[in-house]
């Protein structure tokens, strides 16, 4: 708007200068050439009957031109004013939330970036059940709830606080110029007061609506942060805290701490370096064998990712969740499959490769097409590929998953349920999805000796697999006692450190050549 005012003022100066210039020219011409008198003589000679009115008509024309100019100028000013109003409304709409009248995310970012970042605390407030209110009572009621919360926060806040209402019914209160200790008392007071309101309920249209609120708190001066912060990076960290709040059950207040800062730094590093690492060959497949418990024969290997950097290894439990959230996990899956298929050319033809497909990959047609292309280009028989799908991957979208499973099986690949027993699948899913293997989660296997409940669960899963004609694989086999118990319970395959840790490509060849009996391996391990 400042720019618009400057342009408008400049335009006024230009217009006045032009008018003054034109007047000056006319005066100059009149004084030196008697232009007005000459025009009058010409008019009288042409229309002698209007001789007595000549001067009047000339004056009227001059006045008419003047009036026309004034009218046009006023119309132009009105149009500019209306345009300024529209632009002003548009600019305001970009930074103001239309429901509550507070700043929206853009407005919050603007104010944070214009203020002091190094001494700042921010309280994030998330109304968790606003979607439920919308579904049950309608969006108009939900908006009134948000307005009531906004009015309440305005009443609690100081004039210098920054208030905002952003998407997904999140509110923010920033305390510029206050360190962690100074802002803590005020934040605690706001949380306590808002919790009281939430418990009592907000009244709207004769309804008393309880709200469920969770809080994220960040104080910049309480952290050791090497990179400079701005409004966007502060909100990114608060979003990170909100995700942690959601995963902590009934705990509704979480403070952003140094451990979370390390996780943010890890995420930034992984996202920035992943593509280069993939191209340079830093990320490679490792292989952990499946062993037939009864014959001690190696039946296959599960493909695992390893990120080997010159300055140390980045572990899969760090980078895989980050890649899944960023949408890059499919690139990793494709690379690992291609490298593994090339490596497996030198292995016996009856050795299978098992690779995990994430729920996101399962819904991506390009991933499935990429799988088939890789198998074709590397000459790998699809029958040697086993796709592992975590149990929870097909709970919410069983119909979609069943179509994908059908396509994979049609191409010749087999399907295994990974981490079986940790999700909420049903016998119906096992029947309609036609899996080829059940992998019993290691959390049950590791307690199969000492925990009767875990032993019963493993026994039941084995019986379930036998009933459906599906072999079972026990993950996390680490001791001879585990092995003997699993044999007794009728489990078919085992996987774990008792047989082998994950192996590099060269390690697999040595392992296959040795073919050491499991009893000897277990004795050496002990």
Give me a quick take on this structure:
By secondary structure, this protein is of the alpha/beta class. The chain has helices spanning 2-33, 35-46, 54-95, 105-114, 130-137, 139-156, 180-200, 231-246, 258-280, 316-326, 329-343, 359-362, 365-378, 398-410, 427-433, 442-445, 452-468, 480-489, 505-514, 518-525, and strands spanning 120-127, 162-166, 170-176, 202-204, 207-209, 213-219, 253-255, 283-292, 298-309, 312-314, 352-357, 385-390, 414-420, 437-440, 472-475, 493-495. Helix content is 56%, strand content 17%.
Strand order of the largest sheet: 8-9-11-12-13-14-15-16
Q: Helicity range of the residues?
A: 55-70%
- Please identify, by name, the CATH architecture of the largest domain: Alpha-Beta Barrel
Helix tally equals 20
Strand content: 15-25%
Assembly level: single chain
Structural domain tally: 3
Shape: elongated
According to CATH, the homologous superfamily of the largest domain is EAL domain
Uncertain spans, ≥5 residues at pLDDT below 50? Answer: 1-7, 86-90, 518-526
Label the structural class.
alpha/beta
Largest sheet: 8 strands, mixed, barrel
What's the β-strand tally? 16
Q: Would you state the CATH class of the largest domain?
A: Alpha Beta
| Rg from alpha-carbon coordinates | 37 Å
